[in-house]
Amino acid sequence: IDYDFKNKTLNVKLEELTPLAINASNELYYVYDDKIEKSSTLKYPAPILQGFNPEKEEALIKAMQDLEYDVIKEIASIQLIANEISDELVLMQMKDGNYVQIMISQIPLKMPYYNQMSQTIDAVKGGQDGIIHLDRGDYYEPI
Question: Of the candidates 104, 137, 134, 106, which has an alpha carbon nearest to the alpha carbon of residue 118?
């Protein structure tokens, strides 16, 4: 807090945290002051992680670090669904009923546009839920 007597102005600097995800140990990953932190006592709504080993969990959290909260808050859960083609494939269950299939490394590039994609899909497909394949080909598949 800083008060400028000359201009009669009170300046308050706020640092807020951005929740990223909750792991299987019920620990919250969050960004505070541009650093990734982890807490077992803080409680914020965040996507639930399923099926991650420590290495992939760390990669996912780093990939999500710069996502805006308006995208993160739309994700209900994230499941690692690694297969013979890729060991970094995840399936995100979105709160709007859709799913997003994406590689961990693609999250910073493609997920910032999720809200726009969702609106476009709703307009074109009449709101039918589906899977948005961002891992290859970038297409929508109704379910």
Answer: 134
| 47-78 burial code (b ≥16 CB/10 A, e <16) | bebeebeeebbebbbbbbbebeeebbebbbbb
**pLDDT band (50, 70, 90) for residue 47:** very high
End-to-end alpha-carbon separation of the chain, Å? 52
E-assigned strand segments in the chain: 2-4, 9-11, 18-22, 28-32, 35-39, 48-50, 75-80, 89-94, 99-103, 130-133, 139-142
Most confident of 77-81, 113-117, 121-125, 126-130: 77-81
User: 104 vs 11, 33, 43, 78, CA distance in Å?
Assistant: 39, 23, 25, 11
**DSSP one-letter string for 115-132:** HHHHHHHHHHHTT--EEE
Residue type, 57: E
Residue range 10-34, pLDDT digits in tens: 877 766 899 999 999 999 999 998 8
Q: How would you classify the pairing of strands 139-142 and 28-32?
A: unpaired
